[in-house]
Description:
By secondary structure, this protein is mostly helical. It has three helices and no strands. Helix 2 packs antiparallel against helix 3. The protein is flat, with a radius of gyration of 21 Å.
Amino acid sequence: MLLQNLAILVLAGFIGFAVISKVPNTLHTPLMSGTNAIHGIVLLGGLIVLGAGVHGVLSKVILVIAIMFGTINVVGGFLVTDRMLGMFKRKPAERSQGEQ
Length: 100
């Protein structure tokens, strides 16, 4: 069973890399926004499972670490998305030297 799960994890990593590497640059911002929404759902699920009561200290520690990494991923993803969208905003017109 462990070998099957490990094989699925490795194959999912290869498929994910192959799919993401073929995404054009213009689609990275919408794709990142979608993954942020998915990670938000994952965080909510992790908090619900933690609140429902997980048996075993190791399970709780792994769950807390997963929630922590997921939170870092969501916050970082939103910051990067905001920065990327900021590149498309119009800059305010600068005053000329004589208008002060």
